[in-house]
Amino acid sequence: MLCRAAATQARIDGPVLIVGDPDTGGAAPDLPAAREEARIVYRRFFPQARYLGRAGGAPAGPASGPPGGAGSAAEVEAWLADDSETGGVLHLACHGEVRDDQASLLLHGGERLSADRLAGATRNGRRPGLVVLAACRSAVSGRGWDEAFSLAATFLSAGAGSVVAAQWSLPDRATSDVMVLFHEHIAAGRPPADALRRAQLALLDRPVTDWAGLIHFGR
Asked: Residue 70 is part of which domain span?
């Protein structure tokens, strides 16, 4: 996987999917800062994107663009399974968890999109240039003694060029701040690893738990 990731050219240009704080139906607390983060990323950096989840003031999509949605597991899987285009960006601002030996994203209605299920959806599908998992513990393995079954590793093994994910439970507001700065550097032409580093350096005056949990994998 290391060799494959090193050889991958991460094409960020292409289709974009943004998922902002889907309504979990009470399975987890709302994430108002994540919702705002997704709205800012959509409006400021990727206005052509498809937007899923609670909009928090952002329209579901431009009038001429693709429709939005609730942010269900099926919607995310369908986007990932579409192999008609490669490259692009997937930004997930939602809950992540590790439960019963499964690393999962918590999406609309409280449905869990597990690493195993993601592996099936991405096996022969889209290969995003950049996957941003602004979700708690998305770099943590659900089972085993290394990161092999984490959400981040699942996307890397499916051919994603770069993945940003979290090693622990992240504070909602601080994560939103890091993510907006990260995308500002991406828009300025910085590669993902450097963009994350610069975003974190800007927040060194804050508690280390606010920014150090996010790490970069891949190209």
From this structure: 2-218
| pLDDT number for residue 65 | 41
Q: Over range 62-87, report the average pLDDT.
A: 77
Are the C-beta atoms of residues 219 and 9 closer than 8 Å to each other? yes
Phi, psi of 7 (to 5 degrees): -90, -10
Q: What is the CATH number of the domain that holds 117?
A: 3.40.50.1460
- Which residue has 């994350």 as its token pair? 196
- DSSP string over 86-97: ---EEEEESEEE
Sheet holding 89-93, edge to edge: 50-53, 16-20, 89-93, 130-134, 162-166, 214-218
What is the spatial distance between Cα 18 and Cα 196, in angstroms, rounded to a whole number? 18
Of residues 92 and 5, the one with the higher pLDDT is 92
The single residue listed with the structure tokens 């996307």 is 155
Q: What is the DSSP string of 17-76?
A: EEEE----TTSS---HHHHHHHHHIIIII-TTSEEEE--TT--SS-TTS---B---HHHH
Total domains, the chain: 1
